[in-house]
Amino acid sequence: MKKILAAATVLLVAAFASAKGSFSANDLRPSDKITESFVVNGFTVGAILEKEVRVMKIDVGTKTAPDGTVFTQYLDMRGGPIAQGRTISFSANAGDRVIIYGHSSSRKDARQILVRNVEKETVGTIGVNNQEAAISIGEVRIPANGTYNICSAGAGVYIYAVIVK
Q1: What phi, psi does 21 have (nearest 5°)?
Q2: Among the listed residues 126, 142, 57, the one whose alpha carbon sits nearest the alpha carbon of residue 91
Q3: What residues contact residue 86 under an 8 Å CB cut-off, 6+ apart?
Q4: Contacts (Cβ under 8 Å, ≥6 apart) of 36
Q5: Cα separation, 29 vs 144, whole angstroms
Q6: Partners of 15 in the beta sheet?
Q7: What is the reported pLDDT for 14?
Q8: Is pLDDT above 50 for 152?
Q9: Dihedral angle at the C-alpha atoms of 61, 24, 141, 8, nearest 10 degrees?
Q10: Which end of the chain is more exposed for a tag (fewer CB within 10 A), N or C?
Q11: C-alpha of 32 from chain center
């Protein structure tokens, strides 16, 4: 009986384990059009035929974030979220910190990146600079164990990296 309870406890803890890790566009293969969802390090990038995402090389070779992180490419989310696409999904626990490196796809307008739960309720918002400004780094604290996704509030954004700590 004790062995069964111990095994059940391990399974329960594993069910609520977070993705704690990172996703970086630097680790992806450049592609002009990604039309199917894919998983990298426990993060699911959502894409479908009608609403693709793209992995793009940076025109000037590299961009350096304010904290010194160097990027050679980014994930172009190509607009706001849809039912199965234009999101990055991950599991997280209450209290985890989600750190996002991003930019607006606009040369002049800043934009918003949302962190949402599975009910599509926004649990945090990060403002991202336009392309002419520095890469933005924002952080959201996760309120409860569960699955979350990152998406644009409506218009195009670039995601360089996501870290769950």
Answers
A1: 170, -160
A2: 142
A3: 46, 47, 51, 53, 77, 78, 79, 80, 151, 152
A4: 47, 48, 49
A5: 33
A6: none
A7: 36
A8: yes
A9: -170
A10: N
A11: 19
Which residue type does 69 have? T
Q: Using H for helix, E for strand and C for coil, what is the string for the chain?
A: CHHHHHHHHHHHHHHCCCCCEEEEHHHCCCEEEECCCEEECCEEEECECCECEEEEECCCCCEECCCCCEECEEEECCCCCCCCCCEEEEEECCCCEEEEEEEECCCCCCEEEEEEECCCCEEEEEEECCCCCCCEEEEEECCCCEEEEEEECCCCEEEEEEEEC
Residue 17's Cα: distance from chain center in Å?
18
In the chain the first and final C-alpha atoms are separated, in Å, by 35
